Amino acid sequence: MIVKRKHLAAAVSCALTLVVHAQKKDLVTYASTLQGTNSNFGLSHGSVYPTTALPFGMHGWTAQTGKNGDGWKYQYPATTIRGFQQAHACSPWVGDYAVFSLMPETGTLKVMEDERATTFSHKDETAHPDYYKVTFANKITTEMTATERGAHLRFSFPAKSPAYLVLDGYNALSGVKIWPREHKITGFVGNGRFIPKDFKNYFVIVFDQPFEASGTWENEKGAVHADSLEATGKGVGAYVRFRPGARVQARIASSYISPEQAEVTWQQELGQHTTFEQTRNIAHNTWEQLFERVAVEGGSEEDKATFYSCLFRANLFSHQFFEYNKEGKPYYYSPYDARVHDGYMFTDNGFWDTFRAQFPLNTILHPTMEGRYMQALLAAQKECGWFPAWSFPGETGGMLGNHAISLLTDAWVKGIRTFDPEQALEAYFHEAMNKGPWGGANGRAGWKEYYQLGYVTFPESYGSTSQTLEYAYDDFCGYQLAKATGHDFYRDVFARTMYNYRYQYDSVTGYMRGRKLDGSWVTPFDPYEWGGPYTEGNAFQWQWSVFHDVKGLIRLMGGEQRFIARLDSVFSVPNKVNVGYYKQMIHEMQEMVDANMGQYAHGNQPVQHMIYLYNYAGQPWKAQQHIRDVMKRLYNATPDGYPGDEDQGQMSSWYVLSALGFYSVCPGTDEYVIGSPVFPRATITLENGNKFTVIAHNNSDKNVYIQAATLNGQPFTHNFIHHADIMNGGTLVLEMGDQPAMQRGVAEADKPFSLSK
């Protein structure tokens, strides 16, 4: 009888466990890779594509609705797909590189992209980080899952009709070789705008079904060469035919180093995966484990979908650009000197976007990878002569600022010390004292005037005010790193320029303004006018880019009350646009208008930290209210899910950090400024095994205001927490309410870091 009771108890316990497990929803299923795909040249809801990939993988795969060379690979309103493409691009505005695609067909062979484009419906589409599936109107089903440097695809063809697969070599030099006995295609592609001469992406594709026929073709004129097994030329591709009704698996791997390394990678990542399900399970578990490390509880299903969709995008870029040799050691083909080196390299990132939140999020979730990234930054600088600022994968110098120093300093002050600080400072000193051969962020545009006058002049340099503000912040980061590591020369150099933001402030109008070479202000002045001295914005948005010295900015503006009034005005003034120097509406303007939050243009980076500045001026409750309002109004998990370009994880990382309850206003310090979390409970499991939990009692859409707080059981009034508070593990408990707590967090000691004291 006792034994029976034990068995019964065990059975009941097991049944309850199964019920609980059955009720637990996979976190990966919350993440939609269709978020932000309803975008075009004139209006961005993300400008992303439904990426199937692993975290920070060398590439992803996506359905392709756009033509070869179109930056918008996939647009949600499209009704046809013309291929399934290996993808790398982090921005539609610069296009992609190293691209090739596969397209399944039934019936008659059609090689040209317009002719082969096939109708589909979104109701027949599944899109999650680990798995993409679509069934065409012609009943062909395509499924995709990914490894770090490869992919596993499965094509299911309808019965009683020829089954073709077309490989498109895209729009530059490519080569293919068909191996009928091995059921294999190998080759290379070399397309892309910002790549070194002779750059190649070598690929190997192994199928699990025999070929009934095969040949090569070229996409310039559509010439098809039946039975040809090898070809090289512009836009060269291949095709193979399978038996009618075939279900075909394609396992694909790539290398930037050599054809031999592509085979090595294929064996490493796909050689043991005989079934599609094996590869998919690994991809699913990889994402699930990452998502479980940032586990949120409570909140609506919509909030969870938005959170995990954003967490997915926050963990895609930068792409790994290194590979593992036969011994498992990392090495890479350098896009900077076109040689092969040992170690780590990363690409596909624009630091002007991502220094703000995406890299600070990495310091929390991925400190080991962040350490490797810092090594890669210095390796790139050594191979190129300049720090990367925007890599695709070669350096373009896009946008403005010298934000590699922000990444390096932020890592150092947070205990990630995998690099030589003297080497970093010497490289930054060179960057800050010269102009490189590429875009505005390769060295410094206007660097002589910046040091001689204290500001970059207009019209000698368009975006001059923006440049001055961001140079001053970067110089602060150089100062911070030099001070922390005892390099007095560099400390003293940058100590003189990190306050240069002051030279852009006009006390008469109360705005940061463009200045001429003779010291006079640029006229006429309209704070609504975009461009000119401002990069992708106007005076309302660029007023706040003094990340390192908000208290100094407050003093410039006449004290806290005037500062608060100007912050308030950003939301209260009309959402009108003076197109100014742009001469026409650009998508960033339209996104600000559509957001209908005054001049608050969350769709672009310059203003994304602005809301948190209320914490520096004695009114943290306004930050709490506006942050929750932005997250609720401007983000969701649908194809309209972002209020502008997603930008390599920055837009998503802003949401992830803000939803957790804090944000990195000033990378290069060890502080995060507190906002208002979305969820009643969130737990971050760190690489070191510690857990940091944010508990928000009574949290709801109305209860957005912090009434009281404790950190590890002790009363906590600060509007910031330290990086160590998170990494050491612990619990931040917030009591939430529907009315501002106007006496909390207003003491000087409660305000976040500012250089001025």
UniProtKB/TrEMBL annotation:
The keyword Calcium applies. Residues 1-22 form the signal peptide. The lineage of its organism: Bacteria, Pseudomonadati, Bacteroidota, Chitinophagia, Chitinophagales. Pfam families: Glyco_hydro_92 (PF07971), Glyco_hydro_92N (PF17678). Gene3D superfamilies: 2.70.98.10, alpha-1,2-mannosidase, alpha-1,2-mannosidases domains, GH92 mannosidase domain. Monomer. GO terms for molecular function: carbohydrate binding; peptide-N4-(N-acetyl-beta-glucosaminyl)asparagine amidase activity. PANTHER family: PEPTIDE N-GLYCANASE PNGASE -RELATED, PUTATIVE-RELATED. GO terms for cellular component: cytosol. Residues 33-255 form the Glycosyl hydrolase family 92 N-terminal domain. This is Alpha-mannosidase. Its cofactor is Ca(2+). It comes from the Bacteria. The keyword Transferase does not apply. GO terms for biological process: carbohydrate metabolic process; glycoprotein catabolic process.
